[in-house]
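We treat protein structure as text, and this decision shapes the records that our systems exchange. Below, we set out a record of this kind in full and without editing:

***
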Amino acid sequence: MSRNEMTASYLKALGHPVRLMIARELIQGQKCVGEVESTLNIRQANASQHLSILKINGIVDCIRKGNLKCYFLKKPKKIEQLLDILERYQ
């Protein structure tokens, strides 16, 4: 996959309002699925689906804590910079 294709894939993964909200939450630090669910007031299945898309596209990764899956941004500073840039052009 070319660099341009990777960038497009990355932006496409962030191109959903819920995934943008998840990214903003994860800038603050690691969160388990239940925390994402309650913070964003979405269903657990919906949170898991969006987190999965972010993981497939290399934006987040996860660790297991017992029965819980906790997610974190792989490059939090870069995501924060990207979201700041996008906000400036709204």
